[in-house]
Amino acid sequence: MFRSQLGASVLLAVLAGSSWAADRPVTVTAQPELKPGLAAMPQIAAPADDAERRINAALRRLDGNVRKAAKSCQADGGARSSWTRTVRTPMRGPRFLSVAIDDDMFCGGAHPSTSLMAIVYDLTTGAPVDWTKLLPPTLTGTVALAEGLDGTKMVTLASKRLHALYLERYRPKDSKVERDGDDTACREVVQETTQSDPPGMMAWLDAKAGGLAVQFDLPH
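The structure corresponding to this sequence follows.
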């Protein structure tokens, strides 16, 4: 997998003309692990309204999804099975809360699997954002649902323009950075993706990077 951030200028350009509510930043608190190595979803501390309470409830449901999936994984893989999860919140308001979830699981078979899921919640409604209302059609392209390792459905955007921006910002080949065959293999697969059939990309707002972050899965 590879991640890329579209800079603040791109984000501001696509959001120009939107009307923003004067929403507060939110504080999120980590919760006890569901089991060793399996992070629980965070919660908005002292939720101020129904929207924030709805987000907390949605995050708890995600914990239920991974509990069930991890239990099924253990049944399939036995003692060698494993499921680890880390959770980040790249944006904590105003207006939006981004949650990025990294899963790594092994349930038997040839190799483990990894996956990233991202959800951006609208703090004014408590619902996941509607990218078709937030971004212009050239960036949303075809909106679809992808399934994470735990069965959670996530929105992806298959856009020629978004894919072109991704490739423009993809790390150039640099002998100082390229250290192994895996790097070369990933680069070749990324460069083989085509404008005529762009991959479905996970998107989320990243305050630290100052823009829109996007990622798509690569094969093993």
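The radius of gyration is 18 Å.
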